[in-house]
Each structure stands twice: as C-alpha cells, then as structure tokens.
Amino acid sequence: MSDIIRSKKNYYTDNRRRNIEMNNRITELLGIEKPIISAAMTWVTSAEFVAAVSNAGGMGVLGPNAGQTEAASSPEDMADRLTKEIHKVRELTNKPFAVNYIFPMGGASEDPFTNAVFEVLIKENVKNVIAIGTEVVESEMRRLKEHNVNVVYRDLSPTVEKLLDAEKSGVDALIVTGYEAGGHMSEYKISTLSLVPQVTSKVKIPVIAAGGIIDGRGARAAFSMGAEGVYMGTRFIATKENPASIETKKAIINVKSEEFIEFKSGQGHLRTIPTEAGKKALELINQGKSDEAYKYYGNGFKIGMLDGDLINGTISVSESAGGIQQILTCQEVVDEIFNSIN
Ligand SMILES: Cc1cc2nc3c(=O)[nH]c(=O)nc-3n(C[C@H](O)[C@H](O)[C@H](O)COP(=O)(O)O)c2cc1C
C-alpha cells in the first residue's frame, strides 16, 4: 500500500514538473513552445538558420552580421541588411525569433550602431531581444521597454552581484553564461555548473543557462539547477542549416576538448581550435604584444568560422565541442533536448 502511495506521489510530482518545463516563464515570455534558444553568434547566423530553430519550436536569434559575407560599411548599411534579414526570417516562419542587441560598453548611451539596430527593431516590431553588455544601460532599457520589447539580458562577465543589479534594472529574464561557452568568454572563470545555481537561488526573474550545453543531458542539468531555458551556440553551429563553412563544422566534430588553446583577448578570454592564427595570437599575447595579436584573431571568426579557413582564422567554440559527434538538423537538436527535459 505504501508503495502505491509513493509511486502515485512520484507520478503527480513528475507530471507537475513536466508541466512547469513545457509551459514555463520563458516559453510564456517569448511566446515559444520549447525553451531552447540558438545563440546570437557573429557571422554564423542567418535568416534560414534562425527560422529553422524557430520552426522546430525553439527560438532562433539573429546575431551580428547575420546572413552576410562582408562587414557593413556604415550604421545605415547595417540597418538595411538587418531589415532584409528580418523580412527573410518572416518569409520562412511565423514563429517568434529574436535579435541580438549590444548595449554600449561602459554605460555610454550614444552609439550609432546601437541606434541603428534600435530603429530597425521598432520599425519592424521585433518583440524579443537578447541584449548583451558589461552592464545594463538604463537609457537603453527605458527606450526598449517604452516599446514593449522583451529584454533578455546576457552579461558578458556574469557574477551573482551583477545579475542582481540587472534584475533591478527591469530586464525580463537573464541568460547566465558559464566559462565553458564559445565566443568571447567571461573575464571570470566560473563554470555553468557553479554559476547557474548561485544565480537561480538569488534572482526572482527567469534564468536561461548557457555555456557548454550540447544535448539533453546538459539541458536536464541546467533545469535541475533552476534554469527555465537553455541557450546554445556551439551545438547549433554544427547543424545543417547553420551558415558556417562545412570545414568549421567538421573541425567541431573532430576536435577533442583537451586540444583547445586559450588567451586573454581585448574583451574577456577567447578559446579556439589551435589554428595557425590562433597559435600566433597566443604566442604574441604571451610576449605582451596584445595589439599585434589582435591582427590574428580580430577578424578571425569571419575568416575561420564562416569562410572555413582553418589556418588564418579562429574557430572559437565551447570546450564541450569534444562531445559533438554529428552534424544534425536544427529540428533534431531541438527534439533531442526537448524530449530529455520533457
Ligand atoms: C562563434 C561565436 C560567436 C559569437 N558571437 C556572439 C555575438 O556576436 N553576440 C553575442 O551576444 N554572443 C556571441 N557569442 C556567444 C553566444 O551567444 C553564446 O553565449 C555561447 O555560444 C553559449 O555557449 P556555447 O557555445 O557553449 O553554447 C558567440 C559564440 C560563438 C561560438
């Protein structure tokens, strides 16, 4: 009898947990079915890729230079290209998506590129932004909220204190990024496993976990630490729809976690597959020649990740890349994760 009561209890607890995971504060805020979000990544997002993630029930995010093969020549040119990319997303899906928004660094309120993106967001009635920065800029928050834009904030070097401040400034949700992440990493070497539970036990707004999550097992861990969504870059680069070169995708499949090199970049740290450019940058940084090193990694993502030049570019991904075995479709990635958390 007591066994029956116990298993009934488990049944109800499990079901309650399921409902929370299926329909939680993140899915409600963003208007999506599954709390699985592909990260904003410079050069390696596009309308086709973003729409594929959104059509799979998650949410795609247009990153800087989305769908482009060369840099914009001015804020106006960038706004024009972003507008076209948003239109393309809308031709491919009627599901929600987001745009990356970069808060001016150091609290400055005027940046022509930020202003250009802002104008596009409002004109195009974009509902969700993934805002990044070293702090939440009050004037930016005010103007986004005046237009009812959902602001999901990702601090570039997150700490519990900084995220408590971000919560006070009125952001709708937080992305908490651990040091395992791809791209420019935090200046603090705090892992996802360490940081996410510290943040979820302090803040009241919903938290999305990022950094090193590549499958349902990682997503389950994130959810058990109190996260209500996952935000993934590296796993989504190695998908069929991602615009990264096939060489980049193969490099991700082939790399072992112990092979990466890492150096302090202008902003935080950078981890890369040891390409010639990456090795040269590391060598120069070790000699104290940071400016010279920048020449090797500064435009590295475009050359390495988009163009697939594994000699002159950098391939900056999560250390979890060692666990990625296959190039999948976005639908397959989203389904595997959703089935694990659901
Ligand atoms: C190649 C690459 C480029 C990135 N560029 C950006 C960017 O332009 N803006 C941004 O907000 N985050 C950027 N990121 C960080 C991602 O948004 C995300 O935080 C990170 O990929 C999550 O970690 P994961 O790669 O372990 O999933 C980039 C990440 C990668 C791998």
Please give the radius of gyration in angstroms.
20 Å
Q: Report the oligomer.
A: single chain
Q: CATH homologous superfamily of the largest domain?
A: Aldolase class I
Question: Biggest sheet, strands in spatial order?
Answer: 1-9-8-6-5-4-3-2
Identify the bound ligands: flavin mononucleotide
Order of helices and strands: HHEHEHEHEHEHEEHEHEHHEEHHHH
**What is the average of the pLDDT values?**
92
Judging from the principal axes of the Cα atoms, what is the shape? globular
Please write the CATH class name of the largest domain: Alpha Beta
Major beta sheet, specifics?
A: 8 strands, parallel
Class by SSE composition: alpha/beta
Report on the architecture of this protein:
The protein is of the alpha/beta class. 45% of the residues lie in helices and 13% in strands. The radius of gyration is 20 Å and the shape is globular. It has an 8-stranded parallel beta sheet with strand order 1-9-8-6-5-4-3-2. The two termini are 29 Å apart. The longest helix has 21 residues, at 2-22. α3 (47-55) packs parallel to α4, α9 crosses α15 (330-341) and α12 packs antiparallel against α13 (290-297). The site of flavin mononucleotide (FMN) has 28 residues, from α14.
